[in-house]
């Protein structure tokens, strides 16, 4: 028995999306996400353009599983509680955290009552939960989200990837070796 680990799954867009939307699998990933989130607040503090300032305070989390739910909650808690008195030119409590999930709910592998409770808890905290939506584009200053109503642009500089998991490269190497 061998545990080969896992890595992020960007659904065929790894090269395009991974640099713009870090996932959370390692300590280095967590450090990168923390740096991106804190830098967004600092840049918003120094920015004098209200449009850019607003986009810096928009945080998009992709994926409504355990990682995405926890990440969205952590960012909104950081903005609304931890950092609420730390700035002169911005109000971090006005930050927007949007959780994008392709399915009808969050925590879909959990019991439906627990999943519904978690979704409502996120909403009560101030997270915008967008269900039945999927990300179609990630750019340095915005994302495009597709839903039943059509495509919607979200101006943001911070995207956190929590939507997909695939086997680590060791697993593929073992399969390739066995098939040779």
Summarize the structure.
The chain has 180 residues and is of the alpha/beta class. The protein has helices at residues 14-17, 27-46, 50-56, 66-82, 112-125, 169-179; strands at residues 6-8, 58-62, 96-101, 127-131, 134-139, 142-147, 150-155, 158-161, 165-167.
Account of the 3D structure:
This protein is an alpha/beta fold. Helices cover 41% and strands 24% of the residues. It contains 6 helices and 9 strands. The chain has helices at residues 14-17, 27-46, 50-56, 66-82, 112-125, 169-179, and strands at residues 6-8, 58-62, 96-101, 127-131, 134-139, 142-147, 150-155, 158-161, 165-167. Strands 4-3-2-8 form a 4-stranded parallel beta sheet. It is globular, with a radius of gyration of 17 Å. The model has no long low-confidence stretch (mean pLDDT 91).
Poorly predicted sequence stretches spanning 5 or more consecutive residues: none
The radius of gyration computed from the alpha-carbon positions, rounded to a whole number of angstroms, is 17 Å
Overall average pLDDT:
91
End-to-end span in angstroms?
20 Å
* Helicity, as a percent range: 40-55%
| Count of strand segments | 9
Counting helices, strands and paired strands, the structural category is alpha/beta
The biggest beta sheet is recorded as:
4 strands, parallel
Instruction: Tell the overall outline.
Output: globular
Q: Beta-sheet strand percentage? A: 15-25%
Read across the widest sheet, the strand sequence of neighbours is: 4-3-2-8
Summary keywords:
globular, 41% helix, 180 residues, 9 strands, 4-stranded parallel beta sheet, alpha/beta, 6 helices, 3-stranded antiparallel beta sheet
């Amino acid at each position: 028995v061998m545990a080969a680990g896992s890595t992020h799954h960007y659904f065929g867009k790894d090269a395009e999306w991974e640099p713009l939307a870090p996932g959370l699998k390692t300590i280095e990933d967590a450090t990168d996400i923390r740096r991106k989130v804190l830098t967004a607040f600092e840049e918003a503090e120094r920015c004098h353009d209200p449009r850019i300032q607003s986009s810096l305070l928009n945080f998009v989390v992709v994926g409504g599983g355990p990682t995405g739910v926890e990440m969205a909650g952590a960012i909104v808690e950081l903005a609304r509680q931890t950092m609420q008195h730390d700035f002169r030119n911005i109000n971090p409590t006005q930050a927007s955290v949007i959780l994008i999930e392709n399915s009808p709910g969050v925590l879909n592998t959990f019991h439906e009552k627990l999943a519904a409770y978690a979704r409502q808890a996120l909403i009560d905290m101030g997270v915008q939960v967008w269900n039945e939506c999927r990300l179609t584009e990630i750019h340095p200053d915005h994302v495009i989200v597709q839903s039943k109503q059509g495509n919607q642009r979200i101006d943001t500089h911070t995207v956190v990837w929590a939507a997909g998991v695939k086997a680590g490269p060791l697993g593929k190497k073992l399969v390739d070796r066995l098939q040779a």
